[in-house]
Design goal:
Blueprint lengths: L1 E6 L3 H16 L3 E2 L8 E6 L4 H17 L4 E6 H5 L1 H5 L4 E5 L7 H8 L20 E2 L6 E5 L1 E2 L10 H5 L3 E2 L2 H13 L4 E5 L16 H9 L6 E4 L9 H7 L5 E10 L3 H6 L6 H15 L8 E8 L6 H14 L3 E6 L17 H24 L5 E11 L2 E6 L4 E5 L8 E5 L1
Parallel strand pairs: 1-2, 1-3, 3-4, 4-5, 7-10, 10-11, 11-12, 12-13, 13-14
Antiparallel strand pairs: 6-7, 8-9, 15-16, 15-18, 16-17
The protein binds iron/sulfur cluster.
Iron/sulfur cluster binds next to helix 6.
Length: 420
């Protein structure tokens, strides 16, 4: 039986799809590219913006056109939020929301009368967290250690789509990291919805720092990155430990969202701009020494939040100028039905949002180039990937600078010191 996969959205979705794929292959199915006519398709959907819902529907319809006889399995956040809408699309065979993910493969195989080969990993604890990791890439793997969120920021649908915060038991996270290491992968990006919230409500009382320490001990993995972490959950104790010579790299992806305290509190964010700035300063002090690579800060910023006047937008722009991140991930606010922000006054027009995105893109380009320039002539450790373009291979340094060099297959998947 042939199966093909389509994944939309975040790193979590990619880790989950990759895990389903390994389970189906273990059960004897053959994986084919989605363009090919398959007997089964699995679509892992996203609902972070209204556009993502439409994209998810289009993907399902496209696959039905490719093979009208095929059975289409749909999972992910859109399936969780709008199961009936999804069931109404032609070709859809099964719909799995968050609660159904852990037994998705088993349910499908038994319905198809196919034997469930060996032990299909089940979730280990009552919080029904489906542990997952991405495979197929030789250099790095996304390891899902946490799911859900309890914050309910005013603009966000994720807590409704992915449920309350819960964690993969530490032993299961370590087992998956060892499995990843056995595949020759050197770098792991730990991921979740609110990754720093790892351990909340854990029966065993396992904390985020416990997780980092346990993963740090896994043989074969040489580098870790944290995919994204809320500023208030990145404690000084954790920073001190990370900076004390561990496998965790000087690269932090932190959601700021806005540089206006008025908007931070309106959106229900759990920190002030002053606290945010001093957190970055604390990290810089712990990591940055003369001649050492600088810390790479990638910050999420949302423009056009309801109530974001031109003045408040300028406050955000000048705050970013002051704290000087290496990169800004820019998101235009997307009105999500059912969220408090959708009902708020002061909605910003699409044209104005687009103008503000452009302003921050220009700022990001300048800050990113300054960050790279500051490392010219410096020794950096780069993990080279195996894909070659125009005779060149490339990879990321410890502080997330993209480096290219003439391709040398002996160096694929290896960490190499180069002069930048
Ligand atoms: S912390 Fe992140 S995932 Fe959670 S509600 Fe806020 S924006 Fe959404």
């Amino acid at each position: 039986m042939k199966i093909a996969f389509v994944t939309l959205g975040c790193k979590l979705n990619y880790a989950e799809t990759s895990t389903y794929e390994r389970q189906f292959v273990k059960a004897g199915l053959e994986v084919v590219p989605w363009k090919e006519a398959a007997d089964l398709y699995l679509v892992n959907t996203c609902t972070v913006t209204e556009t993502s819902n439409a994209k998810s529907r289009n993907e399902i319809r496209k696959l039905h056109r490719i093979n009208p006889e095929a059975r289409i399995i749909v999972t992910g956040c859109y399936a969780q939020m709008k199961p009936e809408e999804v069931r109404g699309i032609e070709g859809v065979w099964k719909v799995f929301g968050s609660a159904g993910k852990a037994t998705l493969v088993e349910d499908c195989l038994s319905e198809l009368g196919l034997p469930v080969e060996g032990e299909v990993p089940k979730v280990a604890d009552s919080g029904s967290v489906f542990g997952a990791y991405s495979s197929g890439e030789r250099t790095r793997s996304f390891l899902k250690v946490q799911d859900g969120c309890d914050n309910f920021c005013a603009y966000c649908t994720v807590p409704y789509a992915r449920g309350r915060s819960r964690s993969v038991p530490l032993c299961e996270a370590v087992r998956m990291a060892q499995e990843i290491a056995s595949q020759g992968v050197r770098e792991i990006v730990i991921t979740g919805v609110n990754t720093g919230d790892y351990g909340r409500g854990s029966l065993a009382g396992e904390s985020f720092l416990d997780l980092l320490k346990a993963l740090n001990g896994v043989e074969g993995i040489e580098r870790y990155r944290i995919s994204s972490i809320e500023p208030n959950l990145l404690t000084e104790e954790t920073i001190d430990w990370i900076a004390s010579g561990t496998k965790f790299q000087p690269h932090f992806h932190i959601p700021l969202q806005t540089g206006s305290d008025a908007l931070l509190s309106r959106m229900g964010r759990k920190y002030s701009c002053a606290e945010f700035a001093s957190k970055l300063e604390y990290i810089r002090k712990r990591f940055e020494h003369p001649g050492a690579p600088k810390v790479f800060f990638g910050l999420d910023v949302m423009v056009g939040l309801p109530g974001e006047t031109e003045e408040l937008f300028e406050t955000t722009r000048s705050f970013l100028e002051k704290i000087r991140p290496a990169f800004i991930h820019i998101f235009p606010y997307s009105k999500r039905p059912g969220t408090p922000a959708a009902e708020m006054e002061g909605q910003v027009s699409a044209e104005e949002k687009a103008r503000r995105v452009k302003v921050l893109e220009e700022l990001c380009a300048r800050l990113h180039s300054e960050f790279e320039q500051a490392h010219k002539g410096m020794k950096l450790k780069v993990l080279f990937e195996s894909s070659v373009k125009g005779g060149m291979m490339s990879g990321y340094s410890q502080n997330y600078i993209r480096v290219s060099r003439p391709a040398d297959s002996d160096l694929f998947g290896k960490i190499v010191e180069i002069e930048y």
